[in-house]
Design a protein that fits this description.
- The chain is mainly α.
- The protein is built from 17 helices and no strands.
- Helix 11 (about 200-230) packs across helix 15, helix 12 (about 235-260) runs parallel beside helix 14 (about 290-315) and helix 15 (about 320-350) packs antiparallel against helix 16.
- The protein starts with a helix and ends in a 5-residue tail after the last helix.
């Protein structure tokens, strides 16, 4: 594959990544306006970030058979097209239930793209998979930051429905670019021994770790602007705070995989989790002392952990198809877990009338993640999956 083709593929990969998160982050800074204009209930507000995550997970769990039957490029285009239609529909939606329904279909579209991308990265950039995975994760985070920072401004210039549906335009650009990319056929998956992942405790451990990390991201995306809005901040300021967090996630997603050059990914993972713990502790104990610092520290940790988790899963099974299947399983179960976290956080806030319980929950979860990730020593890979890891 020549350099021009690789450059075009990387550009298409980045543009697709930028479109994976605005469906989530464009909503949260506008929750106050949506509660007024659509009479959005507390339950619907909790479901808006949860439903797409659960759909991403459900798609990933069924991805193995789908990827065997459908070529990679049509899958990517189908996912982006579904996302395009779901976001465009938000321009005419006039109820909270309609907004949740759009989130459901958008989540399916994102799930289709996300399930195909790790295999493409491993196939096309096998020698640089960690760096390209970091680039993909950085694009995801960066798109989320744009959604959070620009949506309040767009709503002020236009109105809320147009501000939400306007995020369909960059999806259209991504579709046009992917039409130009040539995606070669994958090697015959029948030649690769694939482990029965449902029966492997390590596969579930990886999924739990991935899910809880992404649950922290989803919780912050869903509730951080609203938490500070209730402390007296404007919608624009709350969106900007979330934007700072997500821009820091981009830095973590790009930088930390480059530092993870050894076989053992645990040092970088533990550093990323300690950053998350520090940021959540700041939100809990001193939310107004240095909120921008807490957002930046937590964001860096959340961003770093996402690509490291995918690289860690790929490390367990070096064959591209086997590794892609493990990542798909990890994302499938993991995103379902992640989707539950912002919903639980929303209900906690309703019960306690305080976001302190949300940040306390996230701190306890992060401590548990530190203990879990210490178990992922490279010597355990072959033992966890037997001959498939060789």
């Amino acid at each position: 594959m020549n350099r021009h083709a690789n450059t075009l593929t990387l550009a298409a990969l980045v543009l697709a990544g930028l479109n994976m998160r605005p469906l989530l982050t464009s909503v949260s800074p506008l929750l106050g306006q949506l509660r007024h204009s659509l009479h959005l209930s507390g339950l619907a507000a909790s479901l808006l970030p949860a439903v797409p995550m659960v759909m991403m997970g459900a798609v990933a769990l069924f991805s193995a058979r789908l990827m065997q039957r459908v070529a990679l490029k049509p899958l990517l285009l189908a996912g982006l097209t579904l996302l395009l239609l779901a976001l465009a529909a938000r321009g005419v939606i006039d109820s909270g239930s309609g907004l949740v329904l759009s989130a459901l279909f958008a989540g399916i579209g994102v799930g289709v793209v996300q399930m195909a991308m790790p295999g493409l990265i491993r196939q096309r950039f096998s020698r640089r998979s960690a760096a390209v995975t970091g680039l993909w994760a950085g694009a995801l985070m960066g798109g989320g930051g744009l959604g959070a920072a620009l949506s309040p401004w767009l709503s002020a210039q236009l109105d809320v429905p147009l501000a939400l549906s306007g995020w369909a335009l960059p999806v259209l650009l991504a579709i046009l670019l992917w039409l130009l990319v040539r995606v070669p056929a994958a090697p015959d998956a029948a030649q690769v021994t694939l482990p029965p992942l449902w029966r492997k405790p390590r596969a579930w451990s990886l999924a739990l770790s991935f899910g809880l990390v992404n649950g922290g991201y989803a919780t912050c995306v869903a509730w951080l602007p609203d938490a500070y809005h209730r402390l007296g901040w404007s919608a624009q300021a709350g969106g900007s705070l979330l934007g700072v967090m997500i821009l820091s996630q981009v830095a973590g997603a790009l930088l930390m995989p480059l530092l993870a050059r050894g076989a053992d990914r645990r040092p970088q993972l533990i550093v990323s989790l300690l950053c998350q713990l520090a940021g959540m502790s700041g939100f809990l104990f001193a939310p107004l002392l240095a909120p921008w610092l807490w957002a930046a520290i937590a964001g860096f940790g959340l961003g770093a952990a996402f690509p490291l988790a995918m690289v860690l899963a790929l490390d367990h099974l070096p064959q591209p198809q086997a590794g892609a299947r493990l990542v798909a399983f990890m994302q499938g179960a993991g995103f379902i877990i992640a989707g539950c976290m912002p919903f639980i956080a929303g209900q906690l806030q309703v019960l306690t009338h305080s976001f302190a319980s949300v940040w306390l929950m996230q701190g306890v979860v992060t401590l548990g993640l530190i203990g879990l990730n210490l178990r992922f020593h490279p010597r355990s890979y072959a033992r966890a999956f037997g001959s498939a890891a060789c």
